[in-house]
């Protein structure tokens, strides 16, 4: 019985609480319109004391100059221009209060002193917000503004804070305020330590400021902290380059791995490889269009459907090319090069005729958008997935070539065609399927690249030379060589970029490869033996 | 002896080609300058420039055929040499503009003034003299080819690998020339030329003069190439194409022979580029694009690699087709070009000029098939 009463009371309170608050707040809000600046300031302080988030929009309206007093009854309202008059709303509840003539309301004026109070109050109120993210953002805002007025609010908020991440953000904000103001030495040195721990660009900027002002002890601490922060930044910079290199490397790997099959395993130079990638990207676009049309709710899964579709479409085109053109040209690699170049031109034009020359928009599923931070690194999910995907494809291909009957046939045909034929392997069919496999993998690459590149008829062109470089650099006929080649070229490219710029970096990489091939004409992991000369 | 060397390579095909060129060298000036503009025989300046452009491409195709058809080096980067020659000429033409540019700077080309450069870069010096530019037209592509070939042939990069790195070479050059701070006009390249050797570059007579120069260059290139091919040196080159390791085994230093042919071919391509630029009026980095190199390869393939006359024919025919198709059916041009690549490699491996020989080969081939059982009985 007693317990039931308690529950009831709690339920009643929970229902009544907002309105009760609103009732309490209303007179305070009314106080804003009292007249003089000092009275307004008092009213703001009163509102701030409640610590109620419902106050925030009121004070924001005051800051924006939207808060007015209705002359007829002295009520404080939000007035927004509507036609010749104003549309009125209640500042607390947001309820519409009808329209009013321009003369029926009077704006609540604020001066600079009030403006400071307002922003400090707003900072403090958001620092007290029940939502942890809002609190953290408020702390970050204070960190950037270094507003000394927010110090008290920060201290109060810190005392109450339980969330570890928000707490850290608040401590850093407090340190930045202390360092910017004229706090005692001990506080400043403590603040320097906090910022040193944060260790990013912003912290370095703050510390740089602190190193020029204040007492010797504080200066000293700041200088030491700067050195430490810079070391840390350099370390993260290197990590960043490494990540970008890995990311670029995995894109190269995706684009080149199909080529490694057709060029490396079959000895066919497929200049239309880039177009297979492009077809995969357009397949993604079509699958997404279908999802947009018929199942918009399942859009996030469109990529998963696009993968097999792209593989099959590109693979089928590959098989068709092999059956119609390439099978007549085995053993004449330079002529496959010419014929497939012709095919690539025709395929590009075909896509341009069907889809138009402009870029097509391919959306990213929600689980591929956004980013997370890892120390000083910002890693986007899209890139992360592409890295994961590239390695998955590589692993799958490796397993397929080593552990399956199909893979065994491919290797048998590659090593000794006539012997394989004599053993009952249908070499013609293996050729077609191998070419289809290489093209299908290019299609998979197209799905991934559609997420980071423009889906246009020229998509493939951008990757063909890089892909060849990777395969040639890594050594033909060796999947591991392709992996090492892609990662090495991606890494070198990204490490050169900060010093040489993107274009010059790329030129240097190309020159490096040209020179490298002079040293090792058969690539990094060259096949040895008599097959090489063939 | 020198005349014997040059006349050695001339056969019936050469006679036909040189006669056609001689007729062009006489007829085009007469038709362009000697007839009234409304006469049906009149050639407009535009047509003259177009014909000149075709012949420049023919010279490029000829130079490519020298290395591909006779030494077996498929270069996917010959546009690099062509364009470098073009840039050398373009620099001379740029310097001739003098103070007539938009900014009126007597020394600096407009794009440098625009980029706030105050001094001419060192590599632009000397290009105000025609003789210097004319040397550079051959020297720059020649030196690049020599350096590249020296590395490549010595370490025995062959076949597909060589093709791919030549492509990388021209791609790298394209990226480099697109940069503004290279000092070659970046994206826009060199254009807005005024005069060459003191003649107005727009006037009909200058255009005709340039055309005749191109005809002469093409004829000279053809005579030179056929002389090289017919000489003992040419025999070694052909042997290298067919079985390099055997030739090396016989004691020939094959890389030197290849290097010679490669460098010579690059110089010829440079001349072609130099004649191309004043007739088209612009040179920009997109000429370096791997696609234009590969297009040159198709001219050779269509005409017939290893025939010298074939590439000339192929270049003119394909480019005429290009002019026609891009005007009449722009959508179809890439289909047509792509189809040409496929069909020629599949059905005309020896090109148009090789067609007759190909057909002749077919008949005896059937005869040997019927003769086979007899052979087996003998065994």
From TrEMBL, chain A:
<dbReference type="InterPro" id="IPR011989">
    <property type="entry name" value="ARM-like"/>
</dbReference>
<feature type="transmembrane region" description="Helical">
    <location>
        <begin position="242"/>
        <end position="269"/>
    </location>
</feature>
<dbReference type="GO" id="GO:0006865">
    <property type="term" value="P:amino acid transport"/>
</dbReference>
<keyword id="KW-0029">Amino-acid transport</keyword>
<dbReference type="InterPro" id="IPR017779">
    <property type="entry name" value="ABC_UrtB_bac"/>
</dbReference>
<keyword id="KW-0472">Membrane</keyword>
<keyword id="KW-0812">Transmembrane</keyword>
<feature type="transmembrane region" description="Helical">
    <location>
        <begin position="468"/>
        <end position="492"/>
    </location>
</feature>
<feature type="transmembrane region" description="Helical">
    <location>
        <begin position="384"/>
        <end position="401"/>
    </location>
</feature>
<dbReference type="InterPro" id="IPR052157">
    <property type="entry name" value="BCAA_transport_permease"/>
</dbReference>
<dbReference type="InterPro" id="IPR001851">
    <property type="entry name" value="ABC_transp_permease"/>
</dbReference>
<keyword id="KW-0732">Signal</keyword>
<comment type="similarity">
    <text>Belongs to the binding-protein-dependent transport system permease family. LivHM subfamily.</text>
</comment>
<keyword id="KW-1133">Transmembrane helix</keyword>
<feature type="signal peptide">
    <location>
        <begin position="1"/>
        <end position="22"/>
    </location>
</feature>
<feature type="transmembrane region" description="Helical">
    <location>
        <begin position="301"/>
        <end position="321"/>
    </location>
</feature>
<dbReference type="GO" id="GO:0005886">
    <property type="term" value="C:plasma membrane"/>
</dbReference>
<dbReference type="Pfam" id="PF02653">
    <property type="entry name" value="BPD_transp_2"/>
</dbReference>
<feature type="transmembrane region" description="Helical">
    <location>
        <begin position="498"/>
        <end position="517"/>
    </location>
</feature>
<protein>
    <submittedName>
        <fullName>Short-chain amide or branched-chain amino acid ABC transporter permease component</fullName>
    </submittedName>
</protein>
<dbReference type="GO" id="GO:0022857">
    <property type="term" value="F:transmembrane transporter activity"/>
</dbReference>
<keyword id="KW-1003">Cell membrane</keyword>
Automatic annotation (TrEMBL), chain B:
<keyword id="KW-1133">Transmembrane helix</keyword>
<keyword id="KW-0812">Transmembrane</keyword>
<feature type="transmembrane region" description="Helical">
    <location>
        <begin position="297"/>
        <end position="320"/>
    </location>
</feature>
<dbReference type="InterPro" id="IPR043428">
    <property type="entry name" value="LivM-like"/>
</dbReference>
<feature type="transmembrane region" description="Helical">
    <location>
        <begin position="160"/>
        <end position="178"/>
    </location>
</feature>
<feature type="transmembrane region" description="Helical">
    <location>
        <begin position="67"/>
        <end position="94"/>
    </location>
</feature>
<dbReference type="InterPro" id="IPR001851">
    <property type="entry name" value="ABC_transp_permease"/>
</dbReference>
<dbReference type="Pfam" id="PF02653">
    <property type="entry name" value="BPD_transp_2"/>
</dbReference>
<protein>
    <submittedName>
        <fullName>Short-chain amide or branched-chain amino acid ABC transporter permease component</fullName>
    </submittedName>
</protein>
<dbReference type="GO" id="GO:0015658">
    <property type="term" value="F:branched-chain amino acid transmembrane transporter activity"/>
</dbReference>
<feature type="transmembrane region" description="Helical">
    <location>
        <begin position="210"/>
        <end position="238"/>
    </location>
</feature>
<dbReference type="InterPro" id="IPR017778">
    <property type="entry name" value="ABC_transptr_urea_perm_UrtC"/>
</dbReference>
<dbReference type="GO" id="GO:0005886">
    <property type="term" value="C:plasma membrane"/>
</dbReference>
<feature type="transmembrane region" description="Helical">
    <location>
        <begin position="259"/>
        <end position="277"/>
    </location>
</feature>
<feature type="transmembrane region" description="Helical">
    <location>
        <begin position="130"/>
        <end position="153"/>
    </location>
</feature>
<keyword id="KW-1003">Cell membrane</keyword>
<feature type="transmembrane region" description="Helical">
    <location>
        <begin position="332"/>
        <end position="353"/>
    </location>
</feature>
<keyword id="KW-0472">Membrane</keyword>
